[in-house]
Amino acid sequence: MQIKLYYKNVLADVIGEEHGITSTQFEDIAAQTLPLITRLNKERQKGKDCKTPYRNLPSDTDIRKKVNDLVAEVEDHCDTLVVFGIGGSALGNIALQTALNPYMYNIDPNQRSGPQLFVFDNVDPAQLSSFFDWLGDGLDRTIFNVISKSGRTAETASQLLVVREMLLDRLPPDSLKEHIVATTGFDTDDEGNLKSTLLTIANDAKLPTLEVPNGVGGRFTVLSAVGLFSAAMCGIDIDALLAGAADMDARVSCENFTNNPAAINAAINYHFYTRGKKNSVIMPYCYALKDMADWYRQLWAESLGKSTDLDGRKVFIGPTPIKALGATDQHSQVQLYREGPNDKLFTFLQVKDFDAEIKTGPAPECTSDLDFLANIELSTLLNNEKRATEYALLQDRRPCLTVHFDKVNAYTVGQFICLFEVTTSFAGALFNINPYDQPAVELGKEAAFALMGKPGDYKKSWTYKDFADEIRSRTDIDKNFLV
User: What is the edge-to-edge ordering of all strands in the sheet holding 180-184?
Assistant: First the structure.
């Protein structure tokens, strides 16, 4: 089983020189990207100088063993698994579940090979109240996987405080270790103190723990314990997932540009961005892959949206990732995509074998209008819808890529994850920015801390009260402008 990148429909031979890549331009971006393959291969070497430790996750047998050992220990007394996390601590879990388990997994026990899974990546009180009302007496057979590298992520920490009190109120005093798994950072500061508040809590309560690997940003952690624990609990073959990622890692390490799908993918995206196509639409024609588009959106946005390059220059770089779903969004977005500004690069995800099939019946005798849909397979219709949309976009000179899946399974999903993670590294190198940090996120976090009364020094060395007053002065509703 393989996934492959198809890029003919971005070329000038297909969509013209104004909007397509000419052979000379392709040679130029190949020459620009080629040395980066060697550079990234060196950067992924194991050891303290490794700049891309996420690339070593597929071969880390220690992580796999710890996850499988913990699953074996807890699965027999777990009917409901709840993941508390946000951003990279949630999107990968959701994407794996949608891709690799049946659509009715949570509802139909006959389609389920593990506990029901709920991932809460927000602190909406109505959502959580509804869930806890439904859970009721099922609390005693529920496990909460709390995921936060620092343990101080406001949303996840507040969720932990809610469920901790609930468990202590309703179950025996030592129940926490039976119902909470902490996935967090294990590193220490120069004095040997734990950096993670969550790990301090876990050690005090003797909770089982899994590690968020050091140096791996949240959006790159899906192939670590962050994503693997919930996947393995729900019957997903994590060995095949990691094997697929390792397979793709070998392909994206190839130092021949024309055989390296991540290098080509990044080079094409970079080329179009620098020529005014600053929006990147990813459009799966497969429901199972729809949440992979959400995962990609965070990966692309947080990694490549940067104001400053590695030389300290203000550049305000960042392709805007947009998710769509075929055929649904043919009826909600394609009007804009065809007749709106030609400022987008499209990436379709297409599946050859859906591993399930439904055929239509005959059309009613009273009309022949539906004869063309009679006795056909829905997979044929869906893939023809993709081809029709692609054709329509090409008619309007819109560049299109396609990632072809032989089948959606753990192995090919592992390949997809690795392909786009390494594509992100290549794109960051081409843009000359750091794709592994997210400095712009921090101000919002600190502002929320100040508003919630967290002591500490903040912006301009203010106290949290000064900072909170400044925030309120800028964001309180002025009734003079409320209509």
Answer: 116-120, 80-84, 142-147, 180-184, 209-211
Q: Are 403 and 454 contained in the same domain? A: no
User: Backbone dihedral region of 4: left (phi > 0), alpha (psi from -120 to 50 degrees) or beta?
Assistant: beta
CA distances from 446 to 43, 380, 440, 473 (A): 32, 51, 11, 16
Report how far residue 95's alpha carbon sits from residue 421's, in angstroms, rounded to the nearest whole number: 14
Q: How far apart are CA 459 and CA 80, in angstroms?
A: 42
User: For this structure, is 331 an active site residue?
Assistant: yes
Same domain, 418 and 309: yes
Is residue 396 located within the same domain as residue 353? yes
Asked whether residue 187 falls in the same domain as residue 317, the answer is no
Query: Are residues 386 and 292 part of one domain?
Result: yes
User: Does residue 66 carry a catalytic annotation?
Assistant: no
- Whether 188 is covered by a domain: the verdict is yes
Structure-token pair, residue 144: 């909460």
Query: 180-194, 368-382, 456-470 — which is least confidently predicted?
Result: 456-470
Nearest to 44 by CA among 437, 421, 432: 421
The amino acid at residue 107 is I
Residue 217: inside a domain, yes or no? no
Residues 163-185: pLDDT tens digits? Answer: 999 999 999 888 899 999 999 99
| Among 211, 302, 390, 421, the one annotated catalytic | 302
Query: Is residue 240 one of the residues assigned to a domain?
Result: no
* CA separation, residue 371 to residues 243, 327, 364, 367 (Å): 45, 21, 9, 8
Q: Are residues 334 and 463 in the same domain?
A: no
- 65 a catalytic residue: no
Same domain, 290 and 411: yes
Same domain, 371 and 458: no
Report the domain count for the chain: 3
Catalytic residue among 18, 191, 314, 331: 331
The domain of 169 spans: 61-212
Amino acid (1-letter code) at residue 99: A
**Catalytic position from the list 4, 46, 359, 445:** 445
The per-residue pLDDT for 420 is 98
- Residue 237 binned pLDDT confidence (cut-offs 50, 70, 90): very high
pLDDT for 160 equals 98
Specify the pLDDT at position 435. Answer: 97
CA–CA separation, 416 and 410 (whole Å): 10
